[in-house]
Write a structure and sequence with these properties.
Helix content is 74%, strand content 0%. The chain is an all-alpha fold. The chain has a single domain, classed as Helix Hairpins (Orthogonal Bundle).
């Protein structure tokens, strides 16, 4: 495993562990998701450069577009949650309540 692969895989795993174990606020969960998507984007970009294949070159840009859509939806949920509940703490949210 090259140092670049180790760096991006460890960044992805750190984002995943942050998402799994540090679920206090919705904003921290969204930041962990964005870190994971950024490490996937950089890893996929390096992968297409190493393979020197033009067929896979739109893949990182497609992943970046989906990441931007995910970020905008997450921020919209964060604003809606903060307006209705007054906080972004995940423990205060009750999903069974209408």
């Amino acid at each position: 495993m090259t140092p670049a692969h180790f760096t991006f895989s460890s960044a992805f795993v750190l984002g995943l562990t942050g998402l799994a174990f540090h679920r206090t606020h919705l904003l921290s969960a969204l930041l962990c998701l964005e870190g994971m998507m950024l490490s996937l984007f950089i890893a996929m970009s390096l992968w297409t450069l190493q393979l020197d294949a033009t067929a896979f070159s739109p893949s990182p840009m497609l992943l970046l577009a989906f990441s931007a859509c995910e970020a905008s939806a997450g921020l919209a949920l964060l604003v809606a949650t903060a307006r209705t509940h007054g906080t972004d703490r995940l423990q205060s949210l009750n999903l069974l309540q209408c």
